[in-house]
């Protein structure tokens, strides 16, 4: 089976546990204002690559990934669920032994009406990094161009299947850095008992040059990088929201 791949990073240290072989899928339906990979957006671009090619490349450097594994990110991997499912299955059966699999997704692309398209992927996924971009539907739409509901539906499905998930939230000054919004996010994810981690990532401006190269206007040109010192407090706000949400559910 062939997938449409944007690129591969052979020494990833921020997308899942340990050192990871990271596959960036081509194509994304979202248009996050802070996206630093706009070159992954167009589904028609990228390089057709087989599952076997990726497994071979992984095996050549297997020793690096002893405490890590493979992560598939994007773009949006849920746009090519059958390929990612086949890839994860192959990694579990890899010649050198089972490899830990991780999906990094915005959740947008999950089609609740077509669960069969995702069955293999979800069955072969050891961990999901789920980005929830904004807790409020209207602001989520403004920030990403897409609805929040499918993201929450995907999160709910992961919880139903008890697939371990780390929730990620990018803190952007003036957009997603209020304690109120972070608490609201905590309440949204409170019912998901499969959540094993929470990462609040500070917005940075490192992707700006790519916009110039692609001739796209950068939507956050006036927004400074996030003050990292505020991240622990925002994380606490999310945890507070989760706690309050769970207390409410227990009543
Ligand atoms: S979901 Fe990821 S790749 Fe897609 S626009 Fe948002 S940040 Fe960029």
Automatic annotation (TrEMBL):
InterPro entries tied to this protein: Aldolase_TIM, Organic_radical-activating, Organic_radical_activase, PFL1_activating, Radical_activat_CS, rSAM, rSAM_sf
Main location: cytoplasm
Pfam families xrefs: Radical_SAM
Catalytic activity field: glycyl-[formate C-acetyltransferase] + reduced [flavodoxin] + S-adenosyl-L-methionine = glycin-2-yl radical-[formate C-acetyltransferase] + semiquinone [flavodoxin] + 5'-deoxyadenosine + L-methionine + H(+)
Alphabetized Gene3D superfamilies for the sequence: Aldolase class I
Cofactor(s) annotated in UniProt: [4Fe-4S] cluster
Family note: Belongs to the organic radical-activating enzymes family.
Gene Ontology molecular function, alphabetical: 4 iron, 4 sulfur cluster binding; [formate-C-acetyltransferase]-activating enzyme activity; lyase activity; metal ion binding
NCBIfam families membership: PFLA
GO cellular component terms given for this protein: cytoplasm
Keyword Transferase: no
Organism domain of life: Bacteria
Protein name as catalogued: Pyruvate formate-lyase-activating enzyme
């Amino acid at each position: 089976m062939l997938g449409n791949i944007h690129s591969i990073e052979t020494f990833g240290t921020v997308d899942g546990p340990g050192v990871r072989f990271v596959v960036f899928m081509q194509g994304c339906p979202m248009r996050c204002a802070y996206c630093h990979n706009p070159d992954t957006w167009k589904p028609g671009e990228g390089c057709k690559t087989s599952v076997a090619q990726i497994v071979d490349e992984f095996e050549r450097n297997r020793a690096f990934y002893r405490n890590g594994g493979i992560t598939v990110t994007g773009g949006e991997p849920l746009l090519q669920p059958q390929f990612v499912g086949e890839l994860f299955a192959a990694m579990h059966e890899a010649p050198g032994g089972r490899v830990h699999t991780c999906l990094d997704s915005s959740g947008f692309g999950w089609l609740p009406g077509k669960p069969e398209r995702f069955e293999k992927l979800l069955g072969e996924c050891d961990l999901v990094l789920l980005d929830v971009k904004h807790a409020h539907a209207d602001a989520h739409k403004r920030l990403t161009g897409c609805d929040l509901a499918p993201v929450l539906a995907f999160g709910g499905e992961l919880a139903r299947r008890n697939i371990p998930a780390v929730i990620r939230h990018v803190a952007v000054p003036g957009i997603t850095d209020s304690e109120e919004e972070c608490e609201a996010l905590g309440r949204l994810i409170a019912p998901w008992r499969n959540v094993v981690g929470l990462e609040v990532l500070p917005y940075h401006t490192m992707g700006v040059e790519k916009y110039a190269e692609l001739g796209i206007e950068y939507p956050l040109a006036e927004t400074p990088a996030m003050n990292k010192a505020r991240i622990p407090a925002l994380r606490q706000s999310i945890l507070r929201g989760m706690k309050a949400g769970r207390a409410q559910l227990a009543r």
